[in-house]
Amino acid sequence: MKGIISLFEKDPDSENTxxxxxxxxxxxxxxxxxxxxxxxxxPLFIVYHTSCITALDGQTIINQFxxxxxxxxxxxxxxxxDIELKQRKG
Length: 90
Description:
This protein is mostly helical. It has one domain. The chain is built from 4 helices and no strands. The longest helix is centred in the middle third of the chain and has 29 residues, at 41-69. The termini are far apart.
């Protein structure tokens, strides 16, 4: 199980981009979702390692996604809304 989870960890020396590995990661996540777990520790192990991977790589992924869509996804108040525009105009 640890071997499947390690597929989701980023390898800085890897030549494969995330887009190239997407079908493999989708397949690995389906395997992890459909395994017949017999003990509560097994899904908790997966959740723990997923949390660790997200904590390490999550901000990088959010920044890359924000660059892709052209905005700051981390700060929803980055732009002025209607109330701020009306108050500034007077």
